[in-house]
Amino acid sequence: MSRCMRFARNSAGRDFVVGDIHGCFAMLERLLARAGFDPAHDRLFSLGDLVDRGTQSARALEFLAQPWFHAIRGNHEQMAIDAAAGALDRALYLINGGAWFLALGQVEQQRFAEAFRALPIAIEVQTPIGAIGLVHAECPLSDWQAFVDRLEGAGDPVQRLETQAIWGRTRISSLRADPVAHIALIFCGHTVVGRPLELGNHLFIDTGAVFGGALSLVDLGDFHCFQLRWDDAA
Ligand SMILES: [Mn+2]
């Protein structure tokens, strides 16, 4: 598998990016309906963290099987991969919402882990304003091209880079606003924000659906942000 997946411009329809779903797939379906999402022509890009904490985590595989759905790997997919390999502390995964996964049989756990291992760390999508990057937590380097080049290399530095891309909060915790070169915009999830937050050319859109906030869906054509609040969906 490629650690960076590239997509040409969608000349037939619209492209959308959605923040951390965390098992809230019914909310996602309502939000897609509200945005007039057309599965025959439109594409939906997910910033990862499809699972854990919410009630419908097991539906992740159903969405990953759709030809219009493309996701990157979040730290929660990584925890599931590690848990299936016996390489994650059970108590740690439980407090992070992994009870549903730990309750699965071995065969089922492996089925999810295999699908999650196939997810790229980064996605690059061509849009009318240029290339847009997607990464779960943050771009660890100040140059997107250097980041994807190094991601696709091999060895230990790649592991560290992946970990930062999936878990990092360096930019958002220090409100670093320097732009990343060689990319128009970078969408991230992972860190919950009250409303979408722009820092340099990073755009953080995890508005905390599973924490009583909202699920955010951005149209990459006009950057309209569709939101569904958790209490609207009940
Ligand atoms: Mn996360």
TrEMBL record:
Domain Serine/threonine specific protein phosphatases positions: 72-77
Gene Ontology terms describing biological process: RNA decapping
Family annotation (InterPro entries): Ap4A_hydrolase, Calcineurin-like_PHP, Metallo-depent_PP-like, Ser/Thr-sp_prot-phosphatase
Gene Ontology molecular functions: bis(5'-nucleosyl)-tetraphosphatase (symmetrical) activity; phosphatase activity
SUPFAM superfamilies: Metallo-dependent phosphatases (SSF56300)
Any one cellular-component term (Gene Ontology): cytoplasm
Protein name, entry field: Serine/threonine protein phosphatase
Organism of origin: Pseudomonas cavernae
Organismal lineage: Bacteria, Pseudomonadati, Pseudomonadota, Gammaproteobacteria, Pseudomonadales
